[in-house]
Fold this protein.
Amino acid sequence: MKDAPNILWLEEIRKGDLPSVGGKGASLGEMASIGLPVPQAYVVTAQAFRRFLVDTGLEDSLYSILEGLDVDDNNALEAAASKAKDLIMSVPIPDGMADEIRSAYDRIGKNTVVAVRSSATAEDLPDASFAGQQETFLNIEGGDDVIEAVQMCWASLYGARAVYYRSKQGFDDRSVNIAVVVQELIFSEKAGVLFTSHPVTGEPLTIIEGSWGLGEAVVSGSVSPDNYVFDQRKQRVIDRIIASKETEIIPDGRKGTIEVAVSDERKNAVVLSEEEIGRLAALGKLSEDHYGTPQDIEWGIVGDDLYILQSRPVTTIKAQTGGKPKDSYTGSGSVILEGQGASPGIATGRVAIIKHIKDQGSVKEGDILVAKMTNPDMVPAMRRVSGIITDEGGMTCHAAIVSRELGTPAVVGTKKATSLLKDGQIVTIDGDRGVIYEGEVKAAEETRPADVTAVSAPLITSTLVKVNVSLPEAAQRAAATGADGVGLLRIEHLILGMNKTPQWFITNQKEEEFISELYDGIKIILDAFPGKPVWVRTLDAPTDEFRNMEGGEDEPVEHNPMLGWRGIRRDLSTPGQFRLQIEAFKRLWKAGYENLGLMFPLVSHPREFIQAKSLLRDWGVDVDAVTLGIMVEVPSSAIMIDEFIKAGIKFASFGTNDLVQYTLAVDRNNEHVASMYEPTHPAVLKLIDYAIGRCRAAGVECSICGQAGSDPKMVSWLVEHGILSVSANIDAIAKIREAAARTEQRMILNMAYSKGSNEGERLF
């Protein structure tokens, strides 16, 4: 901890550095590493923030303010937040740290204008966006102003909206740190946001929204932007809405920004050309392919230069079951207002208009919240309502993103909701079609002949379709997909979220604290999948992820941590850390969670599995009664699968991300060779096919949990080659189940046709 740096530059950062640089910082570093046009930046690390609290003696006083706080008591929340923020700002940043921040700014350029952005360590995660919970300060110039903005970002971690949101998402205040990104400000002539896939359905449609000036206008929803839909399959624009863009946000002098009116000739002008839309869509696709999940990307354009300013996972894609959207309105009624459907669903309620933040106290459970535009301070009220309507904004504005995350129907960009609707008025909102009806409107029942019943049956597959999970907060959303279990539960996020290495807990005699937190996190996911298999992977964090955590001072510096001291090889060489994990698993088995299976990562020889099994037996585990398996992510484990079967594995699961890299000697994060990363390379497929065949012959379940398991084409190939189960990302379950079902049906038909043909030959 004490040796962790205060400053990290973008080129030093990768996605595994999230505990040090937060979600935003990790994403920027990762994007820069794959060649995306990201402006230069450095990060004031989370360790610097923690050191500030310790060195100034603020830590205990700060957390005592928040301890036992009822976040649903608005007055108590505001008072505690104000006190916490004032405490952070009450003392200066120590001279040495301030000098480092100023020196890094000077390295960018002494007169460079920068954006200073908060980057919390629980932010931009695959399962929760934490959109807008901490502050960003734009148009900052000069070392002193940068230092002030950094401290204000730190203070914003304890703003009322941030404390409230963390509490409702199940994050403890002590477990969340904050880094700060200091990045060259791009004076965008036009800017906005794009979703690499449709943010509700997950279709391969790139949704791009853009307006004039800085992108803050689009993100905040202060302007209704142009909307462009680019079909990735057809490689062309299939829809566009050119909005009337009344205002834009531009830099204001040496500090801050200002909102100004757009000139008459630009108000209704098209923001993006066909060529610019195509370039944005292509960069978005590159980001989605790299991360393996749809992305929400902020962009800016200056002249012919295009910049990517941020990328985070889309957390709002819903599983589609076919047919009409759930709760979609089908009746008739009086339409009083139209806008853009931003979050699907139907809701009826009493209109509650918010013109000022202080008005949100009058919003009751089940109301329809109406505002010019929502902002993060309104999240407590947004949680209470059954529907949301705004005057401004588009598919990528704050109201749209948070509504989709909450599952609340929303219509944005109506232009006149706050002036046309009245407080207390009853309305019905259709978030699919972007329509608001007068009064309570019932959906008309569809009529069919009495002897005809149309039923949309769920897809049933012989192949088990499981889901990958990383965070307890995602358990219910993962279970709602109807998955047949969890094929990969990564415990790295649970452990990294403790901000201390397992060795720290051992050294400080806090083993019980570690075991209890790991037990509680895994239990939440097990409870969401009663009676279904949940395969938990033991710790697989490389040394660079531990190095910046408390207790990580003695972690080795490895040239390539992905090929180093991680996975089962680390656990076997540090049995004390391994035992902490096993103790949590033992308690879960004892509590009756027989569906818990244990999966060992990065095994390269059967002796490692045998040694791990022996340790479990020594620690009181009945190894013959529990489900133990391995990850197949090293070529040797695929080649030696027969020996692993003889050693007693009950399942094997392909970790294709590593298997591809280790088979082809290609680092997919290295821009010079990333194009050679090929999941369907013949050598990779040959290894997988061989292992599947040997497992089937021995009656051992063979599965896949790597990124290839979320690719429908790859899944079809796997089913054809006899795989028994697949595990995909949450947003991919529906399409993977459909791919498996279609493949199984095709195989059955082919067998039937072949049999019929043979019988026909005998007849004739």
User: Anything to note?
Assistant: The longest helix spans residues 733-763. The mean pLDDT is 85.
